[in-house]
Inverse folding.
C-alpha cells in the first residue's frame, strides 16, 4: 500500500532519493499553505494602500496635503519646484 510517510521513517520509495523528494514536497506544501494564510489574513498591505490612494504620484499627494492645510503655500511651492526640477 502506498503511503507518503511509512512506518520505516522513509518517504516515497524507501531509499534516500525518495526521502529527499518527500521532504522537499512536504516543505513546499507547508510553505505554500503558510504563504496563503499570510496573504489572506494580512491587512494594510502595500498593494491595498496603493489601490486606495489611486497611485497619484508625488504631485497628487502634494496637492492633497496643501488642500487639507497640512502645508503652507510657501512649503507647497518649494516642494513643487523640487519635484518638477528633477
Amino acid at each position: 500500500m502506498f503511503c507518503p510517510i511509512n512506518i520505516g521513517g522513509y518517504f516515497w520509495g524507501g531509499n534516500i532519493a525518495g526521502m529527499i523528494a518527500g521532504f522537499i514536497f512536504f516543505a513546499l506544501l507547508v510553505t505554500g499553505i503558510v504563504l496563503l494564510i499570510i496573504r489572506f489574513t494580512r491587512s494594510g498591505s502595500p498593494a491595498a494602500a496603493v489601490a486606495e490612494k489611486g497611485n497619484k504620484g508625488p504631485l497628487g499627494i502634494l496637492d492633497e496635503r496643501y488642500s487639507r492645510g497640512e502645508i503652507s503655500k510657501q512649503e507647497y511651492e518649494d516642494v513643487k519646484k523640487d519635484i518638477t526640477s528633477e
